[in-house]
Amino acid sequence: MDLPVMPPVKPMLAKSVAKIPEGMHYEAKWDGFRAIVFRDGEEVELASRTTKPLTRYFPELVSALRERLPGRCVVDGEIVIARGGRLDFDALTERIHPADSRVRTLAERTPASFVAFDLLALDDESLTGRPLTERRALLERMLRDAGPPVHLAPATGDVEVARRWFEQFEGAGLDGVVAKPPTLRYLPDERAMFKIKHERTADVVVAGYRLHKSGPVVGSLLLGLHDDQGVLQHVGVCAAFTMKRRAELVEELEPLRLDDVSGHPWAAWGDAAAHESARLPGAPSRWSGKKDLSWVPLRPDLVVEVAYDHMESGARFRHTARFRRWRPDRTPESCTFSQLEEPVRYDLAEVLGVRG
């Protein structure tokens, strides 16, 4: 492979802001695997946000990109999978599997798509030094005849349209809106763009914690919600405390600490089969690898209010939740899934402009 922009390349990133800024180039924020595509003739490579190779996990995309992209180019975008008219991140994570036969089966059962939103190189020219407006115009011309599963990310310069997208597109599983300065050069691994994500709050049960990698202080709180049968399901974690606060939490939570996990709602966490019928902490995954997933059980009496962006498959927080405040006025039994706000569904085909 011989391209004007060669791997490894870390993609340009965005920093979170509270409101959609005016005077920007706006795109939807996709909930998938960020990927940079390198194509040189028959060679096609997909690289993750951390520059790790994704090529072998998406053979159907490699074929489609070879057919739909110019002979020599480097394109930034997102790998996504849609089911039932909305993005499905769970289906995407299933594709990271060591068995080639499993990957190919899933490629047929849940084929992936690629949504392109930036162009780093075309033919013999690097475009990273050009402003976004020029890169976008070239990308639009390059993909004007492309079809599914390769898509051009919708974009607008109208802030009112962006605000409407922010409200509507969440129903199709998207994360929010990204705002980019029109004159922005492509700056790898720099947070030069802006992302605006939904934030909601929920009252959840603290049922345990994991130790921090640096020592005997709290790394993250394990959070739970009760389902319709009154069973406490693990829904995610709350982290991002200062080191001083992590040490304080160990002392504050000590009265709730259980020496024996047998009486805990998540006592079966170490049994792989138990994870098939319940949401428990410590489920083995291809992402965690050899990571220590052990945790300290707590009597599930404490309630905390956390902020979150959205739920993954309606069952767990998609990202790490943010601590807001303790809720001594709430009982653990009152912390149920019913409090969670569900966005109005919106067909992903409408986002991408796909019909039929």
UniProtKB/TrEMBL annotation:
<comment type="similarity">
    <text>Belongs to the ATP-dependent DNA ligase family.</text>
</comment>
<dbReference type="InterPro" id="IPR016059">
    <property type="entry name" value="DNA_ligase_ATP-dep_CS"/>
</dbReference>
<dbReference type="InterPro" id="IPR012340">
    <property type="entry name" value="NA-bd_OB-fold"/>
</dbReference>
<dbReference type="GO" id="GO:0003910">
    <property type="term" value="F:DNA ligase (ATP) activity"/>
</dbReference>
<dbReference type="InterPro" id="IPR044119">
    <property type="entry name" value="Adenylation_LigC-like"/>
</dbReference>
<dbReference type="InterPro" id="IPR012310">
    <property type="entry name" value="DNA_ligase_ATP-dep_cent"/>
</dbReference>
<dbReference type="Pfam" id="PF01068">
    <property type="entry name" value="DNA_ligase_A_M"/>
</dbReference>
<keyword id="KW-0436">Ligase</keyword>
<feature type="domain" description="ATP-dependent DNA ligase family profile">
    <location>
        <begin position="105"/>
        <end position="227"/>
    </location>
</feature>
<dbReference type="InterPro" id="IPR012309">
    <property type="entry name" value="DNA_ligase_ATP-dep_C"/>
</dbReference>
<dbReference type="Pfam" id="PF04679">
    <property type="entry name" value="DNA_ligase_A_C"/>
</dbReference>
<protein>
    <recommendedName>
        <fullName>DNA ligase (ATP)</fullName>
        <ecNumber>6.5.1.1</ecNumber>
    </recommendedName>
</protein>
<dbReference type="InterPro" id="IPR044117">
    <property type="entry name" value="OBF_LigC-like"/>
</dbReference>
<dbReference type="InterPro" id="IPR050191">
    <property type="entry name" value="ATP-dep_DNA_ligase"/>
</dbReference>
